[in-house]
Write a structure and sequence with these properties.
The structure is a single chain. The longest helix has 50 residues. This protein folds into three domains: 166 residues, PAS domain (Beta-Lactamase); 81 residues, Signal transduction histidine kinase, dimerisation/phosphotransfer (DHp) domain (Helix Hairpins, Orthogonal Bundle), CATH 1.10.287.130; 183 residues, Heat Shock Protein 90 (2-Layer Sandwich), CATH 3.30.565. It is rod-shaped. The chain has twelve helices and 13 strands. With 500 residues, the chain is an alpha+beta fold. Helices cover 53% and strands 14% of the residues. Helix 1 runs antiparallel to helix 5, helix 6 packs antiparallel against helix 7 and helix 9 runs antiparallel to helix 10.
Length: 500
């Protein structure tokens, strides 16, 4: 069922339920109140008549021809202004006197009209008064009897009164029915209008979704509405932009893959050809070693792309993070020293526990150290614990991160180097966040075109050597820049410390 039909169905059912049930409830309450009012009127009229000269003991003994019959008949006739009929009858059901006259109702004749109401008569004889349920007369009008016992005698006064309130109630019921039908029609119109205002934008968004599915991403999604449909449209627009960014990253990745693989392959071909043509064994070994170096570089590039495109889910365990940092430092030291650089490692003497994937931590530190080693000749790896956090710091003395890429330094394929795929820091952020941490580039006072030492480094220089030594031993030293590294970039990785 379409949304438009659902709207119509719900609105119509609601309108019918509201008007029909509400009208029926009002009709039922009004009918009950009016019927109770008629009962009270019957009893009141009968009681008033009995109290002004209708003596039960005398009425019981009246016979045809008695003068008292005319007097009682006149009094019952006077009640005709308020009631349709009035009777006085004995306990055995025989008539004493009637407002209709002797011809229609002779004295001593059985009063057939009251015979169906034995239960109500029983209540009237015992309680002194009672009323009957509504019934339909020969003229198709509805009536009720009211019974009032005349004192403690065996005579009973019966008054018949029409239920005139039923005609207005019938008119009210017809009004409720017509009102319900009118409400249903109005509900249909409202539902169609409201459904149109909702369904039409949804249909438009469905066309947009089909357009996005077919790859037509050049047209933006209209997001002018401020309601839920507008929020859905803005979400689709963000999805469209995300797909564009993903496609752009994919195209950039493909071009980077081709570019980064072509260079090592070219070197492999060149050195392999030189090794094949050389007759000097030493030169041949040197060329083959160069081939092995290029293959290693090629393998690293492929590994970076695989790590970025298909990262392994973290397997966090509680461990001493100094272990993965030392392993990463041992691997990076050879590469840094091969570039005539120097790596300084400053780790606390006591264990520093975190809950993370040890292999991921090793890869994070290795990528940061390799990145620092490509920019500077002096690299520092530090580890401190402060305010419930474990902070890994990697610094270099290079020119710093260029200002134009600082805000995008952790995005894939963003790099200030001529060589490299630009995935190292993107992998760092991905692995750190997957393990519940965060990474940042510390803003230090800029040197010429780069990020230099700032407030943190100033505090490090101002602190005493003894205080710094005590903090290093306790593992609680502030993650301050190493004053011996110089002006360069500093990356910090934060993880929640695990208690002892």
């Amino acid at each position: 069922m379409s949304i438009r039909r659902q709207f119509i169905l719900v609105f119509v059912l609601f309108a019918l339920a509201l008007t029909a049930l509400g009208g029926w409830a009002a009709w039922a309450v009004t009918s009950r109140v009016l019927e109770n009012e008629l009962d009270e009127k019957l009893v009141l009229v009968g009681s008033a008549a009995a109290a002004v000269g209708l003596e039960g003991d005398l009425a019981v003994v009246l016979e045809p021809g008695d003068l008292g019959l005319d007097i009682y008949r006149q009094r019952l006739t006077d009640l005709s202004r308020y009631v349709a009929e009035a009777y006085i009858f004995r306990r055995d059901g025989t008539l004493v006197v009637s407002s209709e006259g002797v011809e229609q109702a002779p004295v001593g004749a059985p009063l057939r009209a009251i015979e169906p109401y034995t239960e109500e008569l029983g209540r009237a004889w015992s309680a002194g008064q009672a009323t009957t349920p509504l019934f339909q007369g020969l003229d198709e009008r509805h009536y009720k009897y009211g019974f009032v016992r005349l004192g403690e005698s065996d005579a009973m006064l019966a008054v018949l009164m029409p239920a005139d309130f039923l005609e207005p109630l019938a008119s009210f019921r017809r009004t409720v029915i017509y009102g319900s039908l009118g409400a249903a029609v109005i509900a249909v119109l409202l539902a169609v209008g409201l459904a149109t205002t909702i369904v039409k934008p949804l249909e438009s968004l469905s066309h947009v979704a089909l357009r996005i599915q077919r790859g037509r991403l050049d047209e933006a999604v209209e997001t002018t509405r401020g309601d839920e449909i507008g929020r859905l449209a803005r979400a689709m627009e963000r999805m469209r932009r995300g797909i564009l960014e993903r496609d752009e990253q994919l195209r950039l990745m493909l071009s980077q893959v081709a570019h980064e693989i072509r260079n090592p392959l070219g070197g492999v071909e060149l050195f392999a050809t030189a090794a094949a043509e050389s007759e000097d064994p030493a030169e041949r070994r040197r060329m083959l070693e160069r081939v092995r170096t290029e293959v290693s570089a090629l393998n690293r590039i492929i590994g970076d792309f695989l790590m970025f495109g298909r990262p392994r889910a973290p397997e966090p365990t509680r461990h001493d993070i100094r272990g993965p940092l030392r392993e990463a430092a041992d691997l990076a030291r050879k590469e840094i020293e091969a570039r005539n650089g120097h790596l300084e490692v400053d780790l606390p003497a006591s264990a520093v526990d975190v809950r993370a994937d040890p292999d991921h931590m090793k890869r994070v530190a290795l990528n940061l150290l390799r990145n620092a080693g490509q920019w500077g000749t002096r690299v520092a790896l530090g580890l401190v614990k402060r305010d419930g956090e474990v902070v890994i710091s990697v610094q270099d003395d290079g020119p710093g991160v260029p200002a134009e890429i600082r805000d995008r330094i952790f995005e894939p394929f963003v790099s200030g180097k001529e060589k490299g795929a630009g995935l190292g820091l993107a992998i760092v952020r991905s692995l750190v966040e997957a393990n519940g941490g965060r990474v940042e580039l510390v803003q230090r006072n800029s040197g010429a075109g780069g990020v230099g030492q700032g407030e943190d480094a100033g505090r490090a220089r101002a602190g005493s050597r003894n205080e710094a030594r005590r903090e290093a031993v306790s593992g609680n030293r502030r993650p301050e820049a190493n004053a011996n590294v110089g002006k360069g970039a500093e990356f910090r990785v934060y993880f929640k410390a695990v208690g002892e």
